[in-house]
Structure formats: structure tokens, C-alpha cells
Specification:
This protein has seven helices and nine strands; from the N terminus they run H-H-E-E-H-E-H-E-H-E-E-H-E-E-H-E. By secondary structure, the chain is an alpha/beta fold. It has a single domain, classed as Glycerol-3-phosphate (1)-acyltransferase. The longest helix has 15 residues.
């Protein structure tokens, strides 16, 4: 049975190829009322629909998955943050939404938004499209990503860019580089994902690590550190030290 978080649906156990930027941290732009409206309009987020989908996901996944969450006390209750989860399978996304006590926006591949209805739906529940083959075409969405963080939102970036079940894949550093350059004070939280079969159901362990800020480390070294943390939280050996741009 999915364990309940008192305020967010889950109880905790404990009390891509992307636009390249310089490693030099930049100054975050000032958040104004106009920029908030712009980010919300571009993201197309619908709070009520997102809450309804989250509740439906909990009901639909309950018969098949037993969710256990640890480390949720590490998550800031307010202010911007970037979650960097291990990507095992498509269920990572709704399960992560159930495990986290605050709303999240997700960076996802552009192909999911190609159908108008699908595009509207994924944007409404917090999806941010990314063109992996031509990152410059995603400039407007990257601006939206930056503005959401400026507003204090939580954003999910899967650093592997796609599924690597039961093993660590190579990291794609571009989005991490982008966020660190634009908003160097934003913390990154490594997230472990473990799936194990138990009779007719699947047990899922989601572990949130401690927020990490390292303004001095170059992006490549920072990404290696984050991937090592993600691997450890997921109970897997690290994949190696090379990160893709």
C-alpha cells in the first residue's frame, strides 16, 4: 500500500543535450510581477489539473507499487530547488510526484509534446519541453525554466536524459550547467530510485539526499559528484567520470 504523507499523499520513513553556457556563475535576474506572469503563461501550468492527476496517479499505482520514502526532511519547504533523480522507468515521474511534499515541474523530451493534446496535457501538469537534438530551439523553454526557479519552484531534471534500468547511465551536463550559470544559489538534490519485486507488487524506495551547492567546482566535477551521490542512493555503482555536454 502507498504510505501516506500527511500533507502531500506520502508518508516519509524518517522524522540531455542542452544549451551550453559558461561555468562562471551569473547573477539571477530580478523577479517581477511581469516575469511571473510570463513564466506561468509559457509553462501552461494548471494547478487544479495537476493536483487531480496526482491524486489519480496515487489511486492507479496503489495496487502495483508499494512506495517508501526516506530523506524527505532534506527537501527545503520553500524556495527554488532542482531534483536530480535516477531514471529507471516511466513510473519514476508520477512516483516522484507522490513522494515529494511540494509541486514539481519536469523537464521532458520534446517528442512528448508533439501532439497538441498531449502537449497541452503535459504542460498543464508541469512539463517543460526540451529539444535534445537542437537545444537552441528550446531557448524559450529554458527561459521559462530559469523564471520558475526564480519564483521559488521545484524543478526535476533527469541527468541521464533517458531510462537506464538497474544501472547508471552517462550524465548530460548541459541543463545543470545552464542552471548553475544563471542561478548559482539554487540547491541540487540527488535522488535515488530503487525498484524490487515483492510477490505480485513492486516495492519502490525513493531516497532524497542532502541539498548540494558548490559554487567553486567546475560543472564537470560537480556533475560527477552528483552522479556518484545518485548512484549511492540508488544502491548502484557509479557509471564513470565522463559527462556528456
Amino acid at each position: 500500500m502507498l504510505r501516506k504523507w500527511p500533507a502531500a499523499g506520502v508518508r516519509q520513513k524518517e522524522k540531455s543535450d542542452v544549451l551550453q553556457t559558461s561555468d562562471t556563475p551569473g547573477r539571477a535576474s530580478r523577479v517581477t510581477e511581469g516575469s511571473c506572469r510570463y513564466a506561468g503563461r509559457q509553462a501552461g501550468y494548471n494547478r487544479l489539473l495537476a493536483a487531480a492527476v496526482r491524486a489519480a496517479a496515487g489511486l492507479l499505482l496503489r495496487p502495483f507499487f508499494g512506495l517508501r520514502v526516506t530523506g524527505a526532511q532534506n527537501l527545503p519547504r520553500e524556495g527554488p530547488l532542482v531534483l536530480l533523480p535516477k531514471h529507471q522507468r516511466w513510473e519514476d515521474i508520477p512516483l516522484l510526484g507522490l513522494a515529494c511534499p511540494r509541486p514539481l515541474f519536469y523537464v521532458a523530451k520534446q517528442e512528448l509534446f508533439s501532439c497538441p493534446i498531449c502537449g497541452w496535457f503535459f504542460r498543464s501538469i508541469g512539463g517543460i519541453p526540451l529539444n535534445r537534438s537542437s537545444p537552441l530551439k528550446s531557448r524559450a523553454h529554458l527561459r521559462t525554466l530559469a523564471q520558475l526557479l526564480e519564483q521559488g519552484k521545484g524543478v526535476v531534471i533527469f541527468p541521464e536524459g533517458t531510462y537506464f534500468e538497474n544501472r547508471m547511465g552517462p550524465a548530460r551536463s548541459g541543463l545543470i550547467r545552464f542552471v548553475r550559470a544563471r542561478l548559482p544559489q539554487v540547491p541540487f538534490v540527488p535522488v535515488g530510485m530503487r525498484y524490487s519485486a515483492v510477490r505480485h507488487r513492486c516495492r519502490v524506495q525513493i531516497t532524497f539526499g542532502r541539498p548540494i551547492r558548490d559554487l567553486k567546482a567546475p560543472t564537470e566535477a560537480f556533475v560527477v559528484r552528483m552522479m556518484t551521490e545518485i548512484a549511492a542512493l540508488s544502491g548502484m555503482p557509479a557509471a564513470g567520470r565522463n559527462a556528456k555536454p
